[in-house]
Amino acid sequence: xxxxxxxxxxxxxxxxxxxxxxxxxxxxxxxxxxxxxxxxxxxxxxxxxxxxxxxxxxxxxxxxxxxxxxxxxxxxxxxxxxxxxxxxxxxxxxxxxxxxxxxxxxxxxxxxxxxxxxxxxxxxxxxxxxxxxxxxxxxxxxxxxxxxxxxxxxxxxxxxxxxxxxxxxxxxxxxxxxxxxxxxxxxxxxxxxxxxxxxxxxxxxxxxxxxxxxx
Length: 215
Known about the structure:
Layout: E1 2-6, H1 16-32, E2 35-40, H2 42-48, E3 55-56, H3 73-78, E4 83-86, H4 95-107, E5 111-116, H5 119-126, E6 132-136, H6 147-150, H7 152-165, E7 170-174, H8 180-188, E8 193-196, H9 198-201, H10 206-213
Parallel strand pairs: 1-2, 1-8, 2-3, 3-4, 4-5, 5-6, 6-7, 7-8
Helix pairs in contact: 1-10, 5-7
């Protein structure tokens, strides 16, 4: 299973705190022999990529040029990132912009993890053949109620849709994932990884929270 830990812009996932959490992730991943990838703010990427593999929380669909304030995919790659989130529920994009982001990410040799909030959106995104699609129900994000337990039929349907439309795309799920039981349920439904944010990043003991996820 792949464990994607989204640092968002939480205080405990920014700057020096982000580096501390990245060190925890690196240590746990090595000791438990699992793949744990943080999704971090672009400003923290370069330092975190010295510690562990990481992805950007977003990119913009742009080449080199006059694009002040936007996130250049090639700059993310040059900072050491291995991939990027696209279309997270907190940074929604049109399907046209999702397609453009995938295009520019590929040209920068970045893996693409595209978020989908419902089955229809997942079907539209699947046609674009990203590397991963992460199904996240917006209603459950940050609630502690996991999508894999609360809405298993949706996760199962999502996995089935990917198998039918684009079997090479790897299915992930997120929203409310907090412990290894949630992860086991997600695995049993056919996903290959989970997205987690506040349950780890905002935990009083981040290492303990991370350990509780691993199956």
